[in-house]
Each structure stands twice: as structure tokens, then as C-alpha cells.
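In response to the reviewer comment on reproducibility (Comment 2.3), we provide here a single inverse folding case reported in full, input and output, so that an independent group could reproduce the run without further information from us. The C-alpha cells appear first.
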């Protein structure tokens, strides 16, 4: 079965646009497509994504899992585990590593909740 060539019909609404207008139209449509994905990314995460982020922050996989579990237990998963670790680090003036280990050991829970 051969597909009907309907290119000319489908491009009528674009035929009179200049190259600049086509360029702008492309990026307008691209933004429209990507916007919902960006919003979902801001509000949704998974434990595997959070572990991956913690690995990139320098934690081992054995250290990352308790951090993720602790953040989930606190109900702060939507804030991001790396963000939780970073904020604790900034607040207590300690290293990211020290803060992450504290989070993983379920320490400073009250302070962490206050930070959010």
C-alpha cells in the first residue's frame, strides 16, 4: 500500500511564510511540545532518578539508597534528594558528603523539614 502524497495540502498554511517566520514557527511549536515535559520534570521524580543524581554528586550506590529512603520517609521526594542534601549542607556549613551521610542516617530530620 502506497501512502498518498498530500504534502502540498498539508503545507498550505505555511507556504506564504518567510524563512524567518518558519524558523520562529518551528521554535514556537517546539516550545509548545516540550513545555509539558519540563513541567512534569519539575514536579515528578523517581527513586532511580534521585539515586542517579546522588551518584553524580559523589555518593556511592550504597550511600545513595539510604539517602533516597530517608528523603522519601520525610515526604520530600518532590524537592529532590540532591536539593535536600545541598540545603542541609548550606545550612549547617558542612560538606555535601557530610550532609548526605546525615540524611542517610535519618539525622537532622526536623531541621531538614524546616528548610522546606
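Designed residues, in position order:
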Amino acid at each position: 500500500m502506497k501512502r498518498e502524497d498530500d504534502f502540498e495540502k498539508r503545507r498550505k498554511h505555511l507556504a506564504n511564510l518567510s524563512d524567518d517566520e518558519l524558523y520562529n514557527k518551528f521554535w514556537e511549536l517546539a516550545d509548545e511540545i516540550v513545555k509539558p515535559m519540563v513541567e512534569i520534570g519539575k514536579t515528578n521524580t523517581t527513586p532511580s532518578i534521585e539515586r542517579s543524581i546522588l551518584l553524580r554528586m559523589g555518593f556511592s550506590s550504597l550511600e545513595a539508597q539510604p539517602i533516597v529512603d530517608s528523603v522519601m520517609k520525610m515526604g520530600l521526594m518532590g524537592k529532590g534528594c540532591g536539593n535536600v542534601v545541598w540545603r542541609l549542607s548550606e545550612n549547617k556549613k558542612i560538606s555535601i558528603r557530610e550532609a548526605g551521610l546525615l540524611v542517610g542516617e535519618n539525622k537532622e530530620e526536623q531541621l531538614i523539614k524546616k528548610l522546606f
